[in-house]
């Protein structure tokens, strides 16, 4: 009887040891995911720290002198549509002085009747009586509205070897009707030089021709 009791006690002890081993194994497996997550979190924090360090170094690379040299955007002005006019079969005579003219259907000068469609267009003329632009070709590059009542005329002025008559520079262009009526004007070259059209400079005194 005693032997049977000892045998049962032995088997019971072995069963407890087996159960204890299984429980320990399960606890170990349950802890493993936590350890993996900790390692992943540690790697992410490390990457974030390295990224922040690189960004900080990049920001520190710009000193005050770089900031002083930073360039602001240039102003952008609304523009007036236009079309440069070329004369193929003779052109109108030059004006007696330099200046800027806007012709409309109400002020069509003699000889200009068929120049543009006067129902939809006006005619712009710029004549520059500055001796340094004698025998220069002129072309409009832009008509910019820099204020409510001020338009800047940007022009290209280049020496023209085919001209030898000491003619003052001028150019005609068609514009949409009433776009320039009542406006004031500034003339500037594409290089940014201000141009004096010569309101009081007589054409005859420059070209040597008789005053009209």
UniProtKB/TrEMBL annotation:
<keyword id="KW-0732">Signal</keyword>
<feature type="region of interest" description="Disordered">
    <location>
        <begin position="25"/>
        <end position="68"/>
    </location>
</feature>
<feature type="compositionally biased region" description="Basic and acidic residues">
    <location>
        <begin position="28"/>
        <end position="37"/>
    </location>
</feature>
<protein>
    <recommendedName>
        <fullName>Lipoprotein</fullName>
    </recommendedName>
</protein>
<feature type="signal peptide">
    <location>
        <begin position="1"/>
        <end position="30"/>
    </location>
</feature>
<feature type="compositionally biased region" description="Acidic residues">
    <location>
        <begin position="45"/>
        <end position="68"/>
    </location>
</feature>
């Amino acid at each position: 009887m005693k032997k049977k009791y000892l045998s049962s006690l032995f088997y019971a002890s072995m069963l407890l040891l087996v159960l204890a081993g299984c429980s320990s194994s399960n606890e170990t497996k349950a802890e493993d995911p936590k350890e993996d997550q900790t390692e992943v979190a540690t790697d992410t924090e490390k990457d974030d720290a390295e990224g922040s360090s690189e960004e900080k170094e990049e920001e520190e690379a710009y000193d005050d002198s770089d900031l002083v040299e930073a360039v602001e955007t240039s102003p952008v002005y609304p523009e007036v549509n236009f079309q440069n006019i070329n004369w193929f079969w003779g052109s109108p005579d030059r004006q007696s002085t330099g200046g800027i003219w806007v012709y409309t259907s109400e002020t069509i000068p003699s000889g200009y009747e068929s120049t543009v469609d006067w129902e939809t267009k006006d005619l712009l003329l710029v004549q520059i009586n500055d001796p340094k632009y004698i025998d220069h070709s002129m072309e409009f590059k832009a008509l910019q509205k820099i204020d409510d009542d001020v338009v800047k005329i940007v022009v290209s002025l280049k020496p023209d070897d085919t001209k030898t008559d000491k003619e003052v520079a001028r150019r005609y262009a068609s514009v949409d009707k009433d776009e320039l009526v009542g406006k004031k004007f500034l003339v500037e070259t594409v290089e940014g030089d201000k141009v004096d059209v010569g309101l009081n400079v007589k054409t005859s005194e420059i070209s040597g021709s008789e005053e009209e």
